[in-house]
Amino acid sequence: MEISDKLSNLHIKSEYERPRNIPSYLNRIKQKSKGTVRNINGFLSRFDTYLVLTYKKPNEIVLKEILALDEESQRRAIFDVLQDYVNYLSEKMNHLSANTISAGYIRASVYGITGYLRFFGFRISRDDVKDGVNCPKIIEEERVPLLREQLQSIMNNTIGLRRTMYFVMSSSALRIAEVLQLRKRDFILDEYDRIVIKVSAKIAKMKKPRLTMITEETARLLRPELDKINDDVFVFNQDNRTVYYKIRNEEQIFSRLREKLGFTDRYETGIHHVTLTDSLRSWCVTKINRIDFGFGHALAGHETYMKRYDRLSIKEKVDFYIRAEKTLQVNSYLDDETTEKMQEVYMKRISDLEDEMNSVRELLKRKTMHFS
User: Do both 369 and 243 map to the same domain?
Assistant: First the structure.
């Protein structure tokens, strides 16, 4: 029998096609990062809840009914539903009870839902959504820099391994999710003039490996901690809990510290001025960029700048880093004025010592002449 005949006689069973629902879609995209899948799950769950509240039907029923329409009506209907959902989100308070849900969240929600709609059977692209759905404009807010005094307060009111972790983050531009997944073997301890950290593609947010470094001030805190563990242990997650749980736990602890220190100012979107990852990362990036613009971004994993610095050897990168190290230091930092005053004091002391030595020499010389 010809292959074509076999194919024509093959009975296609419905079990070969996966059901079109949220769990099935999440299974389809499970190769994406866990954080991405978790976010999309949140977007779709909220969308499903909205459809049930609005139409008294779950998303599967609503979408099947729209798909049954002719192509033109189908297209109008799905864009109407998405636009109504955008308007619904725009009028709701966010989880911080400040203003409305951010435009960034709304846009991310719509594009997350778009992938599910394609999986469901709609011929719709991101460009279609961009043209067919009116999302709120993202308002750029001028970010407030973390002050050295604030960073000192954070460090001086934290103890133990967590304090060391904050020092590592502020001097390396690592994200909280990245630093929690570092093992001892990821630290190159003695090959270069500074400790170098290997951030593997597996734990990097953009799935691109990179190198970063830490200051000597930080190294003095870190080395004793590393001496206690073997190469395979997670340095800052030694109880080996899930990364998602640890991130939530660390953010809650930092939130309590922030309240204690009075760093409670927020942007109009409700986000705090001082946050665990963004503030510590921006501290590092900003200080290093003052020495060589872009190098701080490269250490932080911003792809455009990483390409620019990929051609440098590790030693050359360390040399760049050392040039910026003075301004990165937290408690060991001395500003130029203080340094100049200290130098003046030292120079005066040296001058005084030289005068004393000269006086002693003169005295010895006189005594020698007297006895002779």
Answer: no
